[in-house]
Amino acid sequence: MANVLTLQDGRTLMDQIRQTGAACVVLDLTMPMISGLELLKQLKSAQPDIPVMVMTASQELDTAVDCMKEGAFDYLVKPVEPNRFISAVKHALELNALRNQVDTLRRYLLDGRLQQQEAFDAIVTCSESMTGLFRYMEAIARSQEPVLITGETGSGKELIAQALHELTGSAGKFVPVNVAGLDDDLFSDTLFGHRKGAYSSAENAREGLITQAAGGTLFLDEIGDLSHTSQVKLLRLLQDRQYYPLGSDAPLSTDARVLVATHRDLRAGMEAGTFRSDLYYRLSAHHVEIPPLRRRQEDIPLLLEHFLTQAAQEMGKKKPTPPPELRTLLCAYAFPGNIRELRAMVWDAVARHGGGVLSMNSFRDAIEKSGAPVPVTTHAESISEPSSDGLFTQIESLPSLKETENLLVDEAMRRAGDNQGIAAGMLGITRSALNQRLRKRREAKDAS
Ligand SMILES: Nc1ncnc2c1ncn2[C@@H]1O[C@H](COP(=O)(O)OP(=O)(O)OP(=O)(O)O)[C@@H](O)[C@H]1O
């Protein structure tokens, strides 16, 4: 076959790959000039995305396991049955093609506009990196492949999963499950359910959550903590779209979309041998990686406003005014607990608030408790303060009120990433009032 290249000397592989690339590499473990394991390491460090299959004799199984830890896609024990060989290579090629497609799509989408803004209404953000993620999510929403959502704790993984579910427009439910701390029995029972009498205390049949998610979305949180045996079961579910309730020999089929999330580094898990590489590759065809709050500080003032409104409403208080230097304090803090941590700080501050300007003390206390140094802030440092010379010193003639209003609306929409709900919040008007203004402007423009 023209597109298969056989090399006699393993040492020429890296040069060859640099010249022509490769969609998949099949490596023998025992070779005269260089060992397969050594070559695998070189290949993975230079070209981590090329899938590598390892061929091994049965007495070399330990080395094959080492190869998997080094990132091999799969291993085949010699003598290799031709059909098994073809299907393994095909599988590797398919996954590789899918990954390339997703990368291209991801790059392309970073320039487009959102089609279903309302699916993201619960996610308060004006960050471009988040808007880029939203566009990517819209592109993959209809795919049947699972989606891996990663991000630090409290960065909003569950909200992203809910938005993906909204985007699919499916009639079924969004069913979240936290799999951390579930041993394999509990995992199987929770997910797949059981038949009456499947074990001594199973007095009644129980439907698994995968059944409840029919026609909808099953969201498995903390997937990085899943036991090895449960990982195998999940892989089987993803591959065959079938599962067995405990005590049943008859498989059931599912059409539920599977989303998974973790704050762990699954690649590191794969290298340490705690996370199966076949499952990783299956899960990571679509990957949404949420940036931590400290890498999108522009969201902090927005989130602060949002949580102040929510907390005040919930506690039946008048929304307190935050001192301008509070934003400076928060933007200087690293937020290891991300948005959940900011939310908790705001709730605490509003609960303690007696009236007037919001006190900074509870925020300072929380930062101090986290062990981080409390940034020193002064009123003058505030990022929101206009210059003492006034806003319009650079402009010779003042804009009209109408022009100013249009400019403010445009700026709010830009900062809110075109989310009308957020922009309206910034402008201090209702969403429908903003919508009306935007519509009138469009109509006036169309008429002229
Ligand atoms: N962009 C956002 N806008 C508004 N609220 C947010 C945003 N991101 C997160 N939150 C809120 O922060 C809290 C934590 O979010 P979420 O539970 O989705 O995080 P997570 O990444 O799944 O956390 P964990 O890793 O602990 O499972 C929730 O109350 C959520 O509603």
TrEMBL record:
InterPro entries tied to this protein: AAA+_ATPase, AAA_lid_NorR, CheY-like_superfamily, Homeodomain-like_sf, HTH_Fis, P-loop_NTPase, Sig_transdc_resp-reg_receiver, Sigma_54_int
Pfam families: AAA_lid_14, Response_reg, Sigma54_activat
Highest taxon listed in the record's lineage: Bacteria
PROSITE patterns: RESPONSE_REGULATORY (PS50110), SIGMA54_INTERACT_1 (PS00675), SIGMA54_INTERACT_2 (PS00676), SIGMA54_INTERACT_3 (PS00688), SIGMA54_INTERACT_4 (PS50045)
GO BP annotation list: phosphorelay signal transduction system; regulation of DNA-templated transcription
Record keywords, A-Z: ATP-binding, DNA-binding, Nucleotide-binding, Phosphoprotein, Transcription, Transcription regulation
GO molecular function terms noted in the UniProt entry: ATP binding; sequence-specific DNA binding
Modification 4-aspartylphosphate, positions: 28
Domain Sigma-54 factor interaction: 123-351
Record bears the keyword Iron: no
The protein's name in its UniProt record: Putative two component sigma54 specific Fis family transcriptional regulator
Origin species: Magnetofaba australis IT-1
